[in-house]
Each structure stands twice: as C-alpha cells, then as structure tokens.
Specification:
GO terms for molecular function: phosphorelay response regulator activity; transcription cis-regulatory region binding. This protein is of the alpha/beta class. The chain is built from 8 helices and 14 strands. The chain has 2 domains: about 150 residues, Rossmann fold, CATH 3.40.50.2300; about 100 residues, Winged helix-like DNA-binding domain superfamily/Winged helix DNA-binding domain (Arc Repressor Mutant, subunit A, Orthogonal Bundle), CATH 1.10.10.
C-alpha cells in the first residue's frame, strides 16, 4: 500500500506531520468537519478520506448546522473557535434537537474548565491541538464503535433503574430522574458494569476521554449530583463508593 505524509496545521501551533497508510475498512462512515482554519480543514479532509471515511467540511458553525439538518453525519468534528456560531453552540444545538451524533471537539484551549464546558454541552470527546493524527483516528474509531453498539440496543436495566438509550431518559423505579448529558453518561456506564467497581481513572477515560489527575474533584462533584437525583425520592443508595478504588452500582 502507498503511504502518504499529511501535514496538520493549527493556528500558531507547530505543524504536525504524520505518515498514514490509506485504508478502506471504515465502512464509509460519514464525518462532518467544522473548522475555520483552511489549512487544518483541508488536511483533515485529505487524511480522513484516505482512511476510507466519507468526509464533508464547512468553515463555520452556521454551515455545520445547515449541513446536519440536510443530512446528519455518523460523526461530527467541531473546532471551538469559529465565526457565526462556535463549536460549543453547535454541540448544544445538536443535543437540544435530540440528535445522538457522536461529537469530537478540537481546540487549542487546554484548561480543565474549558474541557468541562465542552463535555457538558454534549460533546463525547475532546482533543487538544496540536494532536497526533494517530490519536485522532483512534478516537474517531472508538466513538463510531460506541455509537454502533448503542444503536444495537435501546434500553438498559439495573438495580431499580431503567434507561432509555435512544431518548436518553432514566428512571428510578417509576420516577424519572431528569439527568444532564454527563449524568446520563455516568449512569449508563455504571449500569452497563453493574456490580463491577470502576476506578476513577477508568471513569475519567470513558466519560471525558482523559484523566483529570488525582487532585481533581470533578468526578466527585458529578457523583454527588447523580446521587441526589437517584435518592431524592427517599430511595436506598445504589451508587456506592469503594474507598481507595472507585465507584459501583449495586443493590444496598
């Protein structure tokens, strides 16, 4: 097979070169890229096309929303800083419209608070610029696999819990919980692994795509939010802390 060198550029960041081998094993999954940096956009289109994806690209958020309305892609890659409508606003609009398209955000912003804003807006993953093409491709494949798995089932059941995966709704017995995107993702992860203690590192990687570090209280805050909603009707605890290890969903 022919190998191709792709140059990825990102604003003031150093250029990044990567050697890729053209592939045709991605099932022609469709990807929409919204990136206002022309060089970065064109490099991404070329790289992902060579990997066998069906790629479309636009240069701002307004065009992205119009394209999604015309034909929803299998995956959406958004730059944060774009004219007209930024990437965070696009992500919020997509989720408000009830679309479950996997969303990967690309940005030069690396502060934890910036990542949390993007993930809370409904993004599934977050990759800081500059990035290695191999890592981007791995994250894309992981998101598409996760979406494919979710498409094969529409509900989950745990101890006193029911989850509607398509509608992203959850109930404790007969009481609907009214979860945010991140809370639902956490509960889904726990219910899929009911009875298994999940480490903090595992949860960080599965929900946010990276580890916040041992000093971060981000996970503990979301666990607190989720517990309050799970127990506000006076129900017994099902989301337990295993000291020094992590968290688990199981009967009391």
């Amino acid at each position: 097979m022919t190998k191709v060198r792709i140059r990825l550029e990102s604003g003031d960041h150093p250029s990044l070169w990567a050697t890729i081998t053209p592939m045709t094993s991605n099932g022609n999954a469709s990807i929409l890229i919204a990136e206002d940096d022309r060089a970065a956009r064109e490099a991404l289109v070329r790289a992902l096309t060579l990997e066998g994806f069906d790629v479309d690209a636009v240069n701002d958020g307004a065009e992205a929303l119009a394209s999604i309305k015309a034909a929803a892609p299998d995956l959406l890659i958004l730059d944060v800083m774009m004219p007209e409508v930024d990437g965070i606003a696009v992500c919020r609009r997509v989720r408000a419209d009830g679309l479950s398209i996997p969303v990967l955000i690309l940005t030069a912003r690396t502060e934890t608070s910036d990542r949390v804003v993007g993930l809370d807006a409904g993004a599934d993953d977050y990759l800081a610029k500059p990035y290695a093409l191999e890592e981007l491709l791995a994250r894309i494949r992981a998101l598409l696999r996760r979406a494919s798995t979710q498409d094969e089932e529409d509900s989950l059941v745990g101890p006193g819990l029911q989850l509607d995966l398509d509608g992203r709704r959850a109930w404790r017995d007969e009481r609907e919980l009214g979860l945010t995107k991140t809370e639902f993702d956490l509960l889904e992860l726990f219910v899929r692994n009911a009875g298994i203690v999940l480490s903090r590192d595992t949860i960080h990687e599965r929900i946010w795509g990276y580890d916040f570090g041992p000093e971060s209280k981000n996970l503990a805050v979301y666990i607190g939010y989720l517990r309050r909603k799970l127990e506000e009707g006076g129900e017994t605890r099902v989301l337990h802390t295993v000291r020094g290890v992590g968290y688990v969903v199981r009967d009391a």
